[in-house]
Design goal:
Strand content: under 5%
Largest sheet: 2 strands, parallel
Number of helices: 20
Radius of gyration: 22 Å
CATH topology: Growth Hormone, Chain: A
Distance between the termini: 25 Å
Oligomer: single chain
Order of helices and strands: EHHHHHHHHHHHEHHHHHHHHH
Number of strands: 2
Length: about 450
Amino acid sequence: MEHNKVEMETMPLRARHIFVLAAASLGQVTGAALSTLIGIILPMIQLFRHPELTSFQQGGIACMSLIGIMIGSIVFGAWSDRRGYLVWFRLCPLIILSASIMVLAIDSVAVLTAGLLIMGLGIGGEYSLDSNYISEIMPRRWRLLMVGMAKATSSIGNIAAAGVALLLLHRWDDPHLWNRMMYIVATLSLIMFLCSLWFRQSPGWSIVHGRTDEARKAVHHFLGDDVEIGSVGGDKRVGKADGVTWREMFRGDNLRKVIFSGVPWACEGLGVYGIGVFLPAIIMALGLAPHNDGYRHIINSVELTTYINIAILPGFILGLCLVNRWYHVRTQTLGFILCAVGLAILLAAYELHWATWTAMAGFIIFELFLNAGPHLMTFIIPSQIYSVAERGSGAGIAAAFGKAGAVAGVFFMPLLLKWGGVKLVLSVTIAVQLIGAAVTCGLGRKVLPRPTPHS
């Protein structure tokens, strides 16, 4: 290698790496923003436009985007392994943008339901692609941290969507303008598409499929003319060019990978989406928001939602500080357990009529360790346990498991509130978090062994 050349695997971090990270993270930001907006829009529709909506119907509408994400993760993940990442990386933002414009243009619950499903398809595709681009372009020493940082940007979506929605609610003072909230999603998806135009095909995917010249040109485009592919082609994570069949993905060692990466993601999905989407409704059920007229009550609950969402970012920061220091199985297991502890405090505060600050502390503990542990780790783990050739399928299946748990949580959350109130909601969520801890601890050491000091 020439003296002035550097290898992409060992090179120092550059500004172009940061741009790749920022652009490839916009899917996470948009998905989190959409989930937050759904939790704000649904009470507005139910209280002021369609009071006849049953708990079953509310759950069905709320989980539409998650069903789309689940399907999109699997479909676009599998297609990307066979046809490359780039075309889907550009198409998915356009899918999200078109659906958000449709909801903006037509004030209808039916259109909202269909639009959420379509937006979910695009977001699911982004979920299966963004970590792939990041993990294949970043230098080896920065790889896990950068994949984790991509997931951490979802906290920006949660916080920003809640904050902007709160400002809009105060400004409009009209619950009938609920569909204008989709301007937030439309703006994010447009920025995402414009950024994707700069991208090229993934170098790792091109190498796997024997397109070395194409991979070399992509590396020069992404990182600079002085960067060489180097030893990345010999990375043991690359795998075989034709990937694996769906049957092989669910047999032997791969089945253990699917369970280890998927089931905890499903348990985490209940906490992130089941609680997250209906956070304003849960806050109202707990009696934490001052009760005024219906619209003012929604505003108060959204305000508290914004404060609680702020705890998401420190949680991710804590997890990122540990990502290269702690064994990931340990981090995820403890994260699940401490999530359950936070919810137990919240449940005790509700049952024993403790002070409001105690309930808020329980919420914050839950959000802090959910995002420091399982919410971050479940996103990182697929890129560690799957080779490049099967990574799109593996990450897509894991994300689909996560969204299946989220769908179940969001669909049943209004029903649980109806059947047993907030006590039943919190009890079920605590049990699910403990299941996530048990699966992580039970399979973790076999699927993702503790790294040796020289590995």
